[in-house]
Amino acid sequence: MKKKIVAGNWKMNKTFNHAKELAQQLVNSSYDTEVNMILFPPALYVSELVDITSESSIGIGLQNVSEHEKGAFTGEISAEMIASVGAQYCIVGHSERREYFGEQNQVLSKKINQLLLNKITPIYCCGEILVEREKGNHFNLVKSQIKEGLFHLSSEEILSCIVAYEPVWAIGTGVTATSDQAQEMHSFIRGVIAEKYGLEVASKISILYGGSCNPENAKELFACNDVDGGLIGGASLVAEKFISIANSF
Ligand code: PGA
User: Fold this and answer.
1) Model pTM?
2) Residue 188, Cα to own-chain centre: how many angstroms?
3) Predicted confidence (pLDDT) per residue in 156-204, tens digit
4) Is 132 a catalytic residue?
5) Are 155 and 201 in contact (CB under 8 A)?
6) 3-class secondary-structure state, position 61
7) Are 194 and 201 in contact (CB under 8 A)?
8) Atom of ligand 1 nearest to the CA of 210
């Protein structure tokens, strides 16, 4: 069974007190019990948020991880450290990491290895920039992101991963992919995974949509066959909006 997931990527937002307050509001809220809610606060707050959410079913993750195991990498955080504070998830290859920090598929595949070694679930992001879509190259591009980032994994390993399709032109822009565009790409991604790992494996992997997902459009997006939830940026910073999205399945 694919899991229904709403993941909140807080990016570089919120002070410590505001972050604790938002986490507490979500812990106190009620939402569809079949939905897995995961929060991605700034790394500095992760340990505290693991504590705040410990009695709830909310999961906590990091927004990034080092591709290295340990050692002299100033400023970096290892997968082992993430596991050691009780976080269970990590975003890999968000388009902002790809664009502003030059992260490429090959490095991202190493980050995934580190996470899996430490039993942390990666959310692997893919998605095209607008010019690629306009050139009609979006399917090829996403296919190579999936292949180069994930296809070194065994079936068992890829089943421990979540994929997020985030068209870059939709992130933080207020422009959302239509449900047809999302479904078309999600079904394509599942097909690409099925070609290598078979239909059964592909059918069990959750594929999230991200890019200006909000309480108004979540229902229509989540109703698509191959959309198993959302990776939410801006709208995850406000408890009411995020809860409303969690109730949109
Ligand atoms: P957005 O961000 O919801 O603010 O568009 C999504 C994301 O970057 O994961």
Assistant:
1) 0.97
2) 18
3) 999 999 999 999 999 989 889 999 999 999 999 999 999 999 999 999 9
4) no
5) yes
6) strand
7) yes
8) 6
Single out the catalytic residue among 128, 132, 166, 186. 166
Q: Residue 59: enclosing H or E segment and its boundaries?
A: strand 59-62
Residues in the chain: 249
**Which residue in 94, 103, 128, 186 is the catalytic one?**
94
Q: Is the pLDDT of residue 78 over 70?
A: yes
User: Which residues are 210's β-sheet partners?
Assistant: 231
Residue from 155, 88, 146, 145 nearest 115 by CA? 88
Closest atom of ligand 1 to 95 CA is 8
What is the reported pLDDT for 94?
98
State how far the alpha carbon of 164 is from the alpha carbons of 5, 90, 226, 243, in Å.
Answer: 11, 12, 11, 19
3-state helix, strand, coil in the chain (%, to 5): 45, 15, 40
Nearest in space to 118 (alpha carbons), one of 151, 73, 85: 85
6 and 38 in contact (C-beta within 8 Å)? yes
Q: φ and ψ at 221, to 5 degrees?
A: -65, -45
The DSSP secondary-structure symbol of 41 reads: -
